[in-house]
Design brief:
Elements: H1 8-11, H2 17-24, E1 50-51, H3 59-63, E2 67-68, E3 72-74, E4 81-86, E5 92-98, E6 103-110, H4 117-131, E7 135-141, E8 144-150, E9 155-162, E10 166-174, H5 184-194, E11 197-198, H6 217-261, E12 288-289
């Protein structure tokens, strides 16, 4: 399926120190427990995530069976839908894969050359979850340490994998019981993660910084079309509300005029102005694409 990984001697070749200076300025090498994520060279040749530079296939070939998001290339599970999360500035921040069992989010981060970042990130995540009064347990999966969290709103599972100057984090979210070790959602996520390809690039990034997410043109076109549809619906709703208010005002004016022109023919008590029906606008930001 994939080309063989580079040998240890290739991976240990002289790197571009200028491009990596920002990566190693903040975090150095750390010790590893037996349940930490496996070193990339210790994993089986057919078990990802893979480094793009390790594979014989070119990007175009890999993208034919994966969603190319710039820093990661993800295989989409059957029936999966995409949910794009944007920043306030309009840039893509995360792409979620929504399944019938729950949501999967895979993202790549800058890391030092030596493994061990996932261990530190997992400890920080566990502390944050416990600080929010969530239940947290540490389990061992195919790549080592995994976090299982039970929160008030959802069950979560965090899977991390250390690579060469990158770290991949996979987040699973679903209803109660959806992220158990033997659940369908976990099986799907592990299958997707094992076929994921990471493109670290040569640009310097501070440690733990998310690597850039770049949406393909087809997905950008769908987003633009959905946003235009949302704006058109909002404008239509606004026009309907304005029309209803204008009709109500005209009706009230007609009633007042009729009461002043023929007061003797009216009822003992004059009819006061009435207000037309109000219709509120509705709508939400586009999040999910089929």
């Amino acid at each position: 399926m994939f080309g063989r990984r580079k040998k240890d001697a290739d991976a240990a070749g002289a790197p571009n120190e200028d491009a990596q200076g920002a990566d190693e300025a903040q975090i150095g090498s750390t010790g590893r427990d037996t349940d930490d994520a496996l070193d990339p060279q210790d994993r089986a040749a057919d078990q990802g995530p893979f480094d793009l530079e390790e594979l014989d296939e070119d990007r175009e070939t890999l993208a034919a069976t994966r969603l190319d998001l710039g820093s990661v290339l993800l295989p989409l599970p059957a029936g999966g839908q995409l949910q794009v999360e944007m920043t306030q500035a309009g840039a893509p921040q995360a792409v979620h894969v929504v399944t019938q069992y729950g949501r999967i989010t895979i993202a790549a981060y800058a890391a030092p050359k030596s493994p061990g970042q996932w261990r530190e990130v997992a400890a920080d995540l566990a502390g944050s979850l416990r600080g929010d009064q969530s239940e947290v347990s540490v389990e061992t999966g195919p790549w080592g340490r995994e976090l299982h969290g039970v929160t008030a709103n959802a069950d979560l599972r965090f899977i991390g994998v250390d690579g060469y100057r990158w770290m991949v984090r996979c987040v699973l979210a679903g209803p109660s019981g959806a992220v158990g070790a033997d659940s369908p959602l976990v099986a799907i996520a592990r299958d997707v993660l094992s076929q994921t390809v990471v493109d670290r690039g040569s640009d310097p990034h501070p440690v733990r910084t998310p690597l850039p997410v770049v949406l393909p043109q087809a997905l950008l076109a769908q987003l633009a079309a959905a946003q235009q549809q949302q704006q058109a619906a909002a404008q239509q709703a606004g026009a309907q509300q304005a029309g209803a208010q204008q009709a109500g005002a005209q009706q009230a004016g007609a009633q007042q005029a009729g009461g002043q022109a023929a007061p003797q023919a009216g009822p003992p008590n004059p009819v006061g102005p009435t207000e037309g029906p109000r219709r509120g606008t509705s709508g939400s930001a586009m999040q999910q694409l089929g």
